[in-house]
Structure formats: C-alpha cells, structure tokens
Task: structure prediction
Amino acid sequence: SSLAASATSVCVVTLNATQLTETPVGLSVDPSGVLAAPATITVPAQSLRAEFAVTALAPGEAGLTAGPLNGSGQTVTVQVLPPPPTLAGLAPPEGALVVGATATFTLSLNAAQPTETILPFALVPQGIASSPGAITVPAGTLTAPVPVTGLAPGVATLTVGPLNGTEAQSR
Result:
C-alpha cells in the first residue's frame, strides 16, 4: 500500500476470534522515520477489530507489523511517496544575453520525484531567445538546467509550467 508524505491513513487490526477481555496488540515500524504508528492498540472485548492512524513522515518504504500476539503477527509494507511536484523557482530571476550566446537558468522543484518530471515552457515574445522543446528534471533530483540562447535584441520572458497549479518565470 502507498501513502503520500505527510498524509495520515486509517489502518485496521483484525483478530481471528473475539475475546472476553480487551486485547492489546503491539505495533512496530521498520525502519523508523518513514512512518509513525502507535506502539500499541487495543482491540475491545467482544470485538474482532480495532482501527488506528498511521502518518507518513518521509519518502521511503517501511514494514508495519502488528504482533506478535500468541505467536503470530502480520506485516504490511507501506510505501511513502514524495509530495506531488510543484515549481519552487527559476533562477536567476533576470538574465542578460548577447545575441548568439547561451545562458543557463536553473529550475527547482519542491521535492525529488521517483520518476522524471517533464515540463512545458514558453519564451514570449518569440524570436528573441530560444531553448530546447521541454525541460526534464531527472528522477531523484530537485533541479534541472534550462539553456537559453539569445537570437535577437529585446526582452523575453521564460515561463515554465504549469505544474500542479504552479509556474515559474524569469526574464
């Protein structure tokens, strides 16, 4: 199962038979730091199940174990995913180019992603500067270079996005 970073989800422990008294069940997370869960939950008397909340702390994978209880336990693997990507910035905010020269801007995301992130962009007005057709931020990284070449005298605005409701601009 998977969960986005900082999200909380409800999990359920189910016993194989009801008990006459409350039944405490130990919980553990391995490795720690990826997922937070209570150390123990209690299944009420005459009930088969109890719910508890887990919170995703950091991207990664963790085993969540219930038990041991009377010699048995169950483990589920939880994958914590990074938050959805948004544009954190485009630097420098302004740049000057000589016609025929190339400058490199740096695009930044809010969080590294497990797969590459391909972004649309526009240079307006057209004909003053050029850049490759799309910007790709490689998997596992936060930034990507954006080469821009001056074509004619003037001022152009480089706009990257949209990406999950965000844009970044530079002139």
User: Anything to note?
Assistant: The radius of gyration is 25 Å. The mean pLDDT is 94. The CA atoms of residues 8 and 55 lie 4 Å apart. The first strand starts at residue 2 and ends at 4.
